[in-house]
Amino acid sequence: MISVKEAKNIILNSTQNFGVEKIPFIKSVGRILKEEITADRDFPPFNRVSMDGIAIDFKEFSSRLRSNRQLTFRVEGIQAAGSKQITLNNAENCIEVMTGAVLPNNANTVIRYEDVTIKNGIATINTETVYYSQNVHQKGKDGKIGDVLIEENTIISAAEIGVLATVGKSKVKVAKQPKVMIVSTGDELVGVDEIPLEHQIRRSNVFTLVSLLERLNIPSETAHITDDKPILKSKIESYLQEYDVLLFSGAVSKGKYDFLPEVFKELGVEKLFHKVAQRPGKPFFYGKTSDCNIFGFPGNPISTFVNCLAYFYPWYYKSVDIETKEETAILGEDVSFKPNLEYFLQVKLESKFGHLVAFPIKGNGSGDLASLVKTDAFIQLSNDKIEFKKGEVYLIIRYR
Question: What does the pLDDT average to over 262-289?
């Protein structure tokens, strides 16, 4: 049995490169960018009007203000958004401008309509608080041609989609997602839409794993195999050839029908470890072939849940070159835990005086699936002591 730290190091040293693919930019939300996105021209590409109003020559305005002359300007024309740039021919005049339009030649300042009265083609400015270049978004202020706008390995969100559209990136390079099969085992499990007998339960772990992978935008397939060793072996043999990752829930402990470790060995899977000094989730199996990584999670729901978050997530992030930051919280109550195991304790998170505080929630063991609904995270308590005091800081793994 190895430590949590050793298990994580082994997994992080066994990452995969899934390759790169080009997809339509509008379909790329949640995917990992695999190229730098640079500006194909200045941003904005021209001096852009940022308020509806009138464009003037600030020097003329200042001169009139100093000499107490009337702040009235004849309207020469209109510069609409999307129209070719026009010119202010007389500094004593003005041009009406619309938001998003090119600033007219010879104009340098925009005064919004709210501060102007226009009557019979004459615009009267009703404020003296005007400064040079106000309401003008200067050319190149947001970025120059060739500037990197989005770094490689960024997780694409709606914000990046707008930038991709702006630079004309209709197709974008992203990391391919792994091809994943999620397998549940056990004769006691029945389908979600079935009515279980007294000795049966509905399958749930497999769908929890599907949802956890969907958070990473990883599609997955699912299968259920009964506790029959020849059938297990036959199906897993084909899965090993077809998928990048196999996630199992159950059949990795010491039960009479926990055949998976034997099957893996017979199929040539390299066992990297089996059992981790933690609770819940101790009977965790991890191995690989040349083309496939195998995560064998224990069958209890909390064990499956925490191991996916604590091991598969970091493995995936490193595989696609995403850097993640560890998060900590302050323990909100004293906790005692005697076994010499790392303890992943379910907690409710609260913000108090600017600090994240974790309050333990007592469940009924690793089979208490319903307890996840009442909690937000696991707090990771090390195995080097048995008393954990209120106010101490520990790592957490959020799932909400």
Answer: 95
